[in-house]
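Reference record:
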Amino acid sequence: MKKYIVGGFVRDKILGLQPKDKDYVLVGAKPKDIEYLKSQGYKQVGADFPVFLSPDGDEYALARIERKTGTGYDGFTVETQGVTLEQDLFRRDLTINAIAWDIGTKTHVDPYKGKEDLQNKVLRHVSDAFKEDPLRVLRLARFKARYADFTVHKSTDDMVRKMVKDGEINHLTKERVYVEFEKAFSEAKPSIFLKYLKDIGALTVLLPGFEATQKELELIDHIVNTSSDSHREEFIWTVILSKLTPNKEYVVGGIKLPARFVKFSNFIKTHTESLLKFRKKKPEEMVELFSTMNIKNNGGEEFLYKVTEYFLIRREMDNELEDLIVKVFDRFTDAPVGDIEDMVKSGKLEAKDIRTHVKGIQTTEIKKMFA
């Protein structure tokens, strides 16, 4: 059995970037070798898939050939017996990802000229096997966003356009599509990812109704550069969903989204006008707005700051307006409404009047701010 480092670690090393996780390919592994790995705590990823995770989190895969047997991401059979390193690299998506590092000889194994494409800054498919996996269309767009100065080779561009035209990406699972978008939105310029999907016709399939205008793309990149890391993806999806309506299962087009993204987007759609015109509201209207927004159950003041951050990034709200909203909210939440439960028990307040009682005191407190 011989061990090689492959994939992104090798690619990024050549580019002079800081590599992340190491992925290994094992060539010539025998059953006894597999049993040894398992005895050392290596966990197999799926009962029928020849990939093992080491205790350190590194991925060890048997050299394999994948043969197309159906549609979509899972429509493959896997063969490992007698597979060479060159055959394993041949099944990979792009030439820049089909370079191996021979640990023993400390040399690159590069049968498909990946180093040359790295030098020339070209994204090129290794073989026609690329078109057997429609997920690679999204992966290509993601690499284009990561390496912004790289170009897609014409033959590869022609191939993915035909894949989209032939309906290949229609077979992708909605959850898997989201994962690729999630990865793309962690890049420095996700606009490139979205723009390329638009150019090849994939965006109308995956996100029908989202036009990806220049203004929207610039706003998305601005969000990446200015928002809190924890809010980045939520804000990007809020931009995308501004004119779209996901269904009850949080599916929009060809993507299934986390519920929290859809809920935040819906919150913004509902309350944008009221928040941006907050200065013009009367104290009674401010109380009604905060009651309707249910800030406390959405996360309290931290949630409110997230909402105002979104509008600040969009340059639709200034710092003074944010400060006013937060101060009024503090008065709203700290209003001395008394012990409601005790008042109801003692007969001083009827249950049906609780809401009116609380709002009255909150309104009085806010009025003091403007007296």
